[in-house]
Amino acid sequence: MPYKFDRLGEGTYNTVYKYVKNGFPFVFKVQKQSLPEPNPEGFIGAVEIEQAAIHNSLDIIDRSIQIWNEINPSLKAEKKRYIINRQVKDGWVVPYIEGKQATDSEIKEALILLTLAIEILKQQL
Question: Global pTM?
Answer without folding.
Answer: 0.66
